[in-house]
Amino acid sequence: MNVATMLGAPGEALRQPQQQWAAAVTAVLREAFGYHFERNAFFRAQCDADGVTPADVSTRADLPKIPMLPVSMFKRPDAHMLLTAPLTDIELEIRSTGTGGVPSVARRDTTTVDRAVVGITSSYRDFFALSKGAGLFLCPSTAEAPEMGMVKVFNMLNGVFDDHVYLVRDYAFDADEALRYLRSREGEMTRHIIGPPFLVNRFLRFLELEDIELKLDPESMVITLGGWKRYTGESISRPEFDAKLQRYLGVGAGRIRDMYGMIESNMLAIECEHHRKHVPPWCYVSIRDVDDPSVELTPGRTGGIAVLDALNTAYPGFLLSDDIGEVDESGCPCGRTGQTVSFRRRRQGAELGCCAVSIEKFLDSQEIVAECAVPAPAGGR
């Protein structure tokens, strides 16, 4: 199965027998390795230093031999040296700024953008089966944040809805407006909520403080992306989050889906109804020993998350992230095969670096979270 087949039918590619999956992902990554090996002088020098060539990658066990780029390199002012494609072919720049304020810049050429758009939208269809309804986006629009990776990924969902609205404007969020929108579509269309966990959680806190229980629809979904840890270090509890969605919006656990990705990669691991995040068939997640990243750990062990991405032609998509987690290659009740990935935490010393963190930090710095304040009694202070 080649990349074009995977992109056109990710549902089928994600349901291959495990042995066929291993052969297919090895083949597309070996091809991608060869592409950058021949065209990228910086990457070729790294390969020469490691003494590895595409001929050395013939089985899935050989994939850890492919040299990795630490994601910290995308924060360098000379990050253009990572490019395989010429700067004149770059169509899109995606940025993510963490708590340190230094942006990661990931550039995509036209081929990479084409592949990513097809792959992500077809994956959405396979996992969510959405084709209508109303989408409440608790994030900025792409017009307001055109370079923000999380917003780009969310924006690719809005085309399936009959109606949608973005309710973070000028980095302000009005929970009353969100409530009005959901009520206005009651009985007309299925209502869905899309946004980073912290903003969905703010809306839930508003409903909790106001003691409002608004039941959505049997087919309603809540789709999140952006991490579960706030810039303050406080974590959002997933079980509590799901319980509040059930209580205040009537959304069952099987309709709550989180996603995991990073702006430097075209991997978007989408959660199935069993809350397992499935690695797309054109990617391979390799868990590395934290003290020695050259060592790959067996499935189930916790270590550094490395992502090998076959879609990227702009630069080598073989990335060592600052994230810690595990992969699982056991069968999933949903019927999909391959790998599932679990994110645990950031590597010690690494800053929080997702778009959601930047949005939340700005919201709090501007003190525009009045929706979470307890109103003063009438006539009092």
From TrEMBL:
SUPFAM superfamilies: Acetyl-CoA synthetase-like
GO function terms (MF aspect): long-chain fatty acid--protein ligase activity
InterPro entries reported in the protein's UniProt record: ANL_N_sf, CapK_Type1_Caps_Biosynth, LuxE
Ranges where the Acyl-protein synthetase LuxE domain occurs: 26-361
BP GO terms, sorted: bioluminescence
Pfam families (UniProt xref): LuxE (PF04443)
Domain of life of the source: Bacteria
Protein known as: Acyl-protein synthetase
The organism's taxonomic lineage, starting at the top: Bacteria, Bacillati, Actinomycetota, Actinomycetes, Micromonosporales
